[in-house]
What does this fold into?
Amino acid sequence: MKVEEYAAGIPLAALEKAAAQLSEHYRAGKASGKLRMEERERVAAYLLTRFPATYAAVSAVLGQVGDVEVESMLDLGAGAGAASLAAKERFAGLRRMTLVETDAASVAAGRAWLPDADWVCGNFAEAAFAEHDVVLASYALGELKTAARMQALERAWAAARRMVMVIEPGSTAGFGVVRECRDRLLEMGGRTVAPCPGDLPCPMGADDWCHFGARLERSKLHRRLKHGQLSYEDEKYSYAVVAKEGAEACAGRIVRRPAHHPGLIELTVCRGDRVAVERVNKRDRNKFGAARRAGWGEAWP
Ligand SMILES: C[S@@+](CC[C@H](N)C(=O)[O-])C[C@H]1O[C@@H](n2cnc3c(N)ncnc32)[C@H](O)[C@@H]1O
It folds into this structure.
């Protein structure tokens, strides 16, 4: 079933209202469980406006983890399965997926596109976790209070054979959650895979936050619900991927959209211990060519 088919039969005005309510709710940093709306409209609005965005963000993150074989994945706060769907497309060997989600309506929707996965309708702060290669939480840990989040993270780490991935909105609050989770995972012996170049404490200044953007196309209906003219939107996200072993960190990470000037490209690069603008001049032909192709969020040598 396509995501849009779920919304078939719901009047457009009701969908618009639900999408506006959903957007306001998340913008205010509130947890999904606090949304008081008609169930079918709530899930339809999520599927039409947020699901493609979180899918795009997770796909972008998975594009930065290098060559890793993943056979099993545990998805915490899975919603309707956007992250697992992205992982299924990224990891050819992914055979076992367990998705834990408290909202029964999201579980029912997600089963349509991930029918072979193990769906657990329950609270991941309480459920027991079996071992999986990867434990992932996409836009979910931020919905817990700090103490519960840390407990869930520690249990996620214990259940992960290879790595834990935490993805949150690319806001100051979302980045705060990611930074806190990364710090704790490193304390437990983890090694950063991405986005950070190594395991040093994050050098971002107090008024700054590490985030990236994933571009996604908007369907006609998506555009209508967002009252947007553009055929695309950029989903901002923050993330940390931390491995148990064998992580190869990059030398640098481009943490802003590159600025292109005539004969000059400016890249804002995190080197692990500092964030600074690096200038690449056209005279340096090879490097300039690489800088032209380099995108926000990619590793930079
Ligand atoms: C913003 S949505 C993200 C859904 C999905 N991971 C994605 O990336 O599209 C957060 C989801 O986490 C779920 N959630 C929050 N706390 C949870 C908990 N303690 N146990 C299970 N699910 C939870 C919510 O019901 C909601 O579906």
About this structure: The pocket of S-adenosylmethionine is lined by residues 32-33, 51, 54, 77-79, 82-83, 100-103, 106, 123-125, 138-140, 143 (CB under 6 Å).
